[in-house]
Amino acid sequence: MVEKLEKLLAVKDISKSYVGVQALDRVSLSINRGEIHCLVGENGSGKSTLIKIISGVVKPDEGEIIINGKRFQSLHAIDSISEGIQVIYQDLSLFPNLSIAENISLNQMIERKKRFISWKEIKNIAEREFSNISKELDLDEKVENISIANKQLVAICRALTQDAQLIIMDEPTTAITKREIDCLFSVILDLKKRGISTLFVSHKLSEVLQISNKVTVIRDGKLVGVYNTEGLDHNTLSFYMSGKKIVDSVLDYREKEGQKEPLLEVKNLSKKGNFQDINFKVCSGEIVGITGILGSGRTEIALSLFGLNRPDSGEIYIDGKLAKIKSPQDAIELGLSYLPEDRLNQGLFIKQSIGNNIVVTILQRLLNRFKLFDNSKKYEAAKEWIEELNVITPSLETAAQALSGGNQQRVVIAKWLATDPKVFILNGPTVGIDVASKSNIHNIIKGLANKGMGVIIISDEIPEIIWNCNRIIVIREGRIVKKLNTNEVTEDKLLDILARKSN
Amino acid sequence: MVKNNRSFKIQKLLKQNETYLFLVIITYSIFITSLNSSFLSLENLFDLGKSSAGMGIMAIGVFIVLLSGGIDISFTAIAISGQYIAANVLIASGVDNIFFAFLISCLVGVALGAINGLLISYFKIPTLITTLGTASVFHGALLTIVGTKAINSAQLPDCFKAFGAKNLLILTKPNGINYGLSIFIIIFILLALLTWLILKYTMLGRGIYAIGGDIDSAERSGFNIAKIQFFIYCYVGFLAGIAGVLHISLIRYSNPTYIVGTELSVIAAVVLGGTRITGGSGTIIGTIMGVAMVTILNNSLILVGLSSYWQNFFVGLIIIISVSITSYQSKRSIGNIVFRR
Predict the structure, then answer these.
(1) Nearest to A295 among B200, B217, B341 (CB)
(2) Which residues contact B151 (CB under 8 A, 6 or more apart)?
(3) CA distance B6 to chain A (A)
(4) Is the pTM for the entire model greater than 0.95?
(5) Per CATH, is A7-242 categorized as 3.40.50.300?
(6) B151-188 pLDDT, tens per residue?
(7) Over the stretch A430-451, which tens digit does the pLDDT of each residue have?
(8) Topology of domain A263-335+422-503, per CATH?
(9) Which residues of B sit within 8 Å Cβ distance of A?
(10) Cross-chain Cβ contact A294/B341 below 8 Å
C-alpha cells in the first residue's frame, strides 16, 4: 500500500456561484485514504454544492480538484466514478421493484456496458459484497419490502461493486433508528479497515463527533476550518457551524392558580400490539415530553389521540369532557393538532405553495358569503402566520419544497396554529433541522405554552426533551415506565432509563 | 441459506397475484363446464386461443408499456392502420403473400410507434396525453388518407384466408369434423417468449423494469431513458402490426373502424393479470392469464346463454374486485410498516 498516495481527494479553493448567489467561496477539502471525514454545515451552507462538484455533476467556477494525484481540469461524473467516488444520495436511488441482488449489481453491469444479463453473475456479485457487510437478508427480496436502514446497506454495497474508494453519504441518518445508525457506523468503520474513505455529510453533531476522524465545517459557502475530531466538543462544533452561541434554557413553568382541570387527560388507553394502560394529563401552559426508542409505541399513542389509530379501550378527556375521537376531523374540532414526524410526506403538501399549505386546515373559515373560496382572506391569513412565525420565504406562492427544513417546519406549525388548538402534539419537531432553526422552533413551542396551550413533544432526542419539557413520560414496549419532572433528571440519567432493558 | 426453503417458496407463491388468478380461472372453468360440458373441450380451447391471440399480442405490448410506468392507448389505432394499409397494398400491388402483409403491417406499426416514442422520449410529453393524441391522429389520418371502405371477403387476398385457416396440429372429432391448433396460438406463444427473454435477460429489459421502478434512479444509474422509451413504443407498434394481420385473417374482412375501441379491455386484461398500473411490476404469465380470464368470461357468457353485452359488465366488475383486493393488501402492509416504526 506504500505506493498508493496517502491523499485520496483534494479540492482547493473551489468557488461556485449561481445567479447572484455565491454558493461556495474558496472552499477546500482534503480526504485521506481510509479516513472518515465529516462535512458539516447548516442547511444552505453549500454542502450539497460541494458534493455535486466532487461527484462531477456541477462544474466549479474556480479552483482545482485532485483525485488520486490526478489533477482534473474539468471533472465529469464519469471521471469521478471511475476514480472511485460514489455518492449515496438521501433518496438512495434504488429500484423498489427490483430485488436486492439486482439493485446491488445492476450499476456495475451498466458500467461494463453489458447487453445481456446473467442472473448467476448478479447473484454472485451481490453475495460477495453483501457478505462483507454481513447482514442476513434474502437477496431475492424486493427492495420495496425492506427497511430504510437495509436499503442504505444495499446502496453502500452497490457503491462497493463499482470499486468505490470514497463513499459520500448525504445525511444518511435522518430516517433511521438509533440501533440502525450504530449498524451503519460499524459498516463505515469496516470500510475504513478496508482502506475505503467515507465523507459523511451531516448536521447531527453527536453523530459527527462519534464517527469521524476529521471534520470540515462550512458556513455560508465559506470554509470555517478543518478540525481533528479529538478535541472537539458539541458546543464548539455547534458554534463553528452556526457562528452563534446557542443557549438552551429550561422552561420555567408554574402551575397557574386555581387551575384544576387538565386540558387533556388520557385514562387507561390501550391498543393491542401498540401500547398498554397509558395514563397522563396535560395542563394549560405545560409541555409534556414523551420519549422512548423507535417502536416503543410513542408515535402510536399520538396517532390514537389524533384519531388515526383507534385504541381498543380507554378514555380521552378534553376539558374534562369525554371525547370520542374517530378521525382527525374529530380531533381538530376538539382542539387537538398533530405535527407528524415525517414532515415531507405527512406534514406538507410539498409541491403546493406555502400559502396553500398554511390555510389548508382552515378552509371553512375562508369562505365568503356565497360559500365560495375567498383568495384575499387566504392571503391575509397566510401572511399573518408567515410574519408571526418568521418564515423566511421569497413569497407566499413559493412551493414548500423550496424552503429549508426549519422554514418548512415553521409552515407546518403555522398550519396547525391557524386552527387555534388547545393541545398541540409535536412528533419529532426538529428532525432533520439545523441547530439554529432548532432553537428557534423550541422557542416558538415554549412561547405557545406560555400563552396557555398544552403541548406534547414526542422525541427521542434527549436534549430536546430535557430542555423543553416540564414533565417527561418514558415509554418502553408500549408501557409508561417512568414519569419524571424535568428538574429531577440529567441527560445521562434519562438516557440510562431509555436504554435499560425491561427486567 | 434459508432453512425452510419449501414453505418459503409456497409463502411467496401465495403472495402473488398470478396464483389467485390461476385459481379463479380454474374454478370458473369448472363451474362453466358443469353448465355446458363443451366448454372444457380441446376444440373450444383451441378456438378460444385462436380468437384471443390478437388481443393477447396487443396485451403483451400494453404490459411492457405499463411496466415502464407509461400507458399506451394508441395501439389499437396502430393495429388497424397496419392491417388496413397492408390489405390495401396487397390488393393494389397484386402480391398475394402473407409475409409481405406482415412486413407492411409491422413497418407501419413500428413507424407509428416511433412517433409515440419520439414524442415521449424526446419531448418528454406524458405518455397518456401523447398516445391519447396520436390515437386520434393515426386513426383520423387512416380514414381520411387511406379510406373508409371496408374490404370484404371476396376482395380480400387469398393469403389472409389461407393463413387464418392454417392449423399446425389437426385432430378429428368422433363425428368426423376436423379441428386443430391454429398457427395464431404459436405466434402468440413465440412473441410472449421473445418478450420474456428481452425482459429477463437483456439490459434493455432490465432498464424497462428500472424506469418503471424509479425513473430518476434509472437515469442516475446510467440507463439511457430516451433510448429505452423509444424502443418500448416501437415494439408496441410492431406487436400491434402483427395483431392487425391476425385480426384480418381471423374475420376475413377489414373495416378501418374495427379494433379501435377495444383498447380499454386490453389494458383491463393486463391490469387484471397483476401488472401494476403505476409501473415497475408485473409478469408476462400474469398478462397471459389476464387475457385468458377476459376471453373465458366473454366466451362463457355466450355458452351460458347470456348476451355478450354482459361481458363489459363482468370484466369491469372483476377488475374492480381484483384491484380492490390488491390495494387493500398493500394498504394493510403499509399500515404494518407505519406501526413497526
Answers:
(1) B341
(2) B84, B87, B88, B91, B253, B254, B255
(3) 14
(4) no
(5) yes
(6) 999 999 999 999 999 988 888 878 878 888 999 999 99
(7) 887 777 788 889 989 988 988 8
(8) Rossmann fold (3.40.50)
(9) 1-2, 200-206, 209-210, 212-214, 216-218, 220-223, 279-281, 339-341
(10) yes
